[in-house]
Design brief:
Layout: E1 19-27, E2 31-33, E3 38-46, E4 52-58, H1 60-68, E5 74-78, E6 81-84, E7 97-100, E8 106-109, E9 142-150, E10 154-158, E11 161-171, E12 178-183, H2 184-197, E13 203-207, E14 210-212, E15 218-220, E16 226-229, H3 234-244
Parallel strand pairs: 4-7, 12-15
Antiparallel strand pairs: 1-3, 1-5, 2-3, 3-4, 5-8, 6-7, 9-11, 9-13, 10-11, 11-12, 13-16, 14-15
């Protein structure tokens, strides 16, 4: 298997008979694209050189691969379609390609000795630094915070359309509450799920949010955003423990 392995940076839409060894470092909830009339799920994979490539799964393959591809596990993956991305705004990784994966793609969990490390896979941005970022944020932007409150659902009129927005208040050790808004496309999946578990004060990992100037500085979803909940990494556990030791609204 290792003899046939290529790096993420070597993948392109003209390569054949390839295998990559990658860890799952991002995984969205299953989402429904009404404009496409189908459900899908997004992934981001990282290799041992630090490069990343996004993956997408559609329709009936979603339920199968949601069970197979687990966050932070390492796999050999092959026999997927390598699709070139022409819009830089939707590139989630370090290469301008996307893997279209099906249940018939080659996917094999690696031997434990070949697992890729997941320490320091995210470069978390402090809330205090968000004001210096450009409006659409950065492809490497990652935010880790606790959800401390759900705000009332709002409706905005944009271009003659009614747009639903669900806002949350998030907090980290900086003690600077921040508004995080989930826009309409996220409401049926990530938004509803977060509303349901918000009273548990989950830790949220938000990859590639949009940095907005609403409320001074705030965060919002955009097309390339992936939101994950209570991720099993040391930094998330430390944040949860910090919150549990807080008086009042915390655990004590």
């Amino acid at each position: 298997m290792e003899m046939n392995r290529v790096a993420i940076s070597q993948l392109n839409d003209n390569i054949y008979a390839w295998v990559i060894r990658v860890a799952v470092v991002e995984k969205s909830l299953i989402r429904h694209a009404h404009y496409m009339g189908r459900k899908y799920q997004r992934y981001v994979f990282a290799d041992d050189l630090g490069d990343r490539i996004q993956g997408i799964v559609y329709l009936n393959d979603v339920q199968v691969l949601d069970e197979v591809l687990q966050l932070y596990s390492t796999y050999y993956i092959g026999s997927a379609t390598v699709r070139r991305l022409t819009n830089n705004r939707v590139v989630l990784g370090t290469v301008a390609f996307e893997l279209v994966i099906t249940q018939y793609s080659f996917i094999q969990l690696v031997d434990p000795s070949l697992r890729l490390p997941i320490d320091n896979i995210y470069n978390f941005t402090p809330f205090a630094n968000l004001g210096s970022l450009r409006y659409f944020g950065d492809s490497n932007l990652a935010i880790l915070a606790m959800v401390i409150e759900v705000l009332p659902l709002q409706i905005f009129i944009i271009g003659g359309r009614y747009i639903w927005v669900q806002e949350f208040i998030i907090l980290n050790e900086e003690m600077r509450p921040m508004i995080f808004a989930m826009w309409e496309d996220f409401l049926e999946s990530e938004g509803m799920h977060l509303v349901q578990i918000a009273n548990e004060h989950p830790v949220v990992l938000i990859c590639r949010p949009k940095v907005s100037r609403l409320y001074g500085v705030s965060l919002a979803t955009q097309e390339q955003t992936i939101v994950m909940y209570n991720v099993d990494i040391p930094r998330a556990r430390e944040l949860h423990e910090w919150y549990e030791t807080m008086p009042g609204d915390g655990g004590s």
